[in-house]
Automatic annotation (TrEMBL):
The keyword Translocase does not apply. Its EC number is 3.6.5.2. Belongs to the small GTPase superfamily. Rab family. One of its GO terms (molecular function) is metal ion binding. PANTHER family: PTHR47978. SMART domains: ARF (SM00177), RAB (SM00175), RAN (SM00176), RAS (SM00173), RHO (SM00174). This is small monomeric GTPase. It comes from the Eukaryota. The gene is LOC115424924. It holds the Pfam family Ras. Gene3D superfamilies: P-loop containing nucleotide triphosphate hydrolases. InterPro entries: P-loop_NTPase, Small_GTP-bd, Small_GTPase. The keyword Kinase does not apply.
Length: 198
């Protein structure tokens, strides 16, 4: 396999980074007791991108403040960043700007960034509107979608869109049209969480 990544998961503690990754990797939901990530976790998944099998390297980071200096050290190696907030937590959304500042300070200039509003299944507890997420993403020029690690909605799409972008960056021919990640996501959004995305 050729290897793409690393793709790094970022965002406040408890927004669902580990659960989103487990949903993508194993197709299951980690309900029950919340176990905070310590430092950083490394996982790989083989995905199909345009009929090419690629190994996607994924780094799950701890959202807790006390691990920040550990995770900072990994930013510069990341090819892509999935930045998560929790639609039921206003502070996690308000902190996205601070996360983007950290990304600006520590990550590579051309890193692929995607904003994810997670826990979209928790409609009754929602405090961040979809439009607020869209507006913030637009301001920073990054793609956006709402995900649920519980139902799986848009989880595969997020990783596949990133994998496709990284594959195009790695193999782009000069005469080939550039991959448009925004257009790809818009065309695939809200389709079921599995199958046939590529
Ligand atoms: N309903 C619902 N609960 C979720 C979802 N994603 C995560 N959770 C729950 O939210 C809690 C935190 O999830 P984690 O994935 O451990 O959070 P994290 O962002 O990795 O946290 P840190 O490791 O501290 O950075 C857990 O209790 C999960 O079961 C989701 O999409 N829907």
């Amino acid at each position: 396999y050729c290897t793409f990544g690393p793709v790094m998961l970022l965002g406040d503690s408890a927004v669902g980074k580990t659960c989103v990754l487990v949903r993508f990797k194993d197709g299951a939901f980690l309900g029950g007791n919340f176990i905070a990530t310590v430092g950083i976790d490394f996982r790989n998944k083989v995905v199909d991108v345009d009929n090419l099998k690629v190994k996607l390297q994924i780094w799950d980071t701890a959202g807790q403040e006390r691990f920040r200096s550990v995770t900072h050290a990994y930013y510069r190696d990341a090819q892509a960043l999935l930045l998560l907030y929790d639609i039921t937590s206003k502070p996690s959304f308000d902190n996205i700007r601070a996360w983007l500042t950290e990304i600006h300070d520590y990550a590579q200039k051309d890193v692929v960034i995607m904003l994810l509003g997670n826990k979209s299944d928790m409609a009754a507890e929602r405090v961040v509107k979809t439009e607020e997420g869209e507006k913030l993403a637009k301001e920073y020029g990054v793609p956006f979608m709402e995900t649920s690690a519980k139902t799986g909605v848009n989880v595969e799409l997020a990783f596949h869109a990133i994998a496709k972008e990284l594959k195009h960056r790695a193999t782009q021919q000069p005469n080939e049209p550039k991959f448009q990640i925004h257009d790809y996501i818009e065309s695939q959004k809200h389709k079921s969480g599995c199958c046939g995305l590529m």
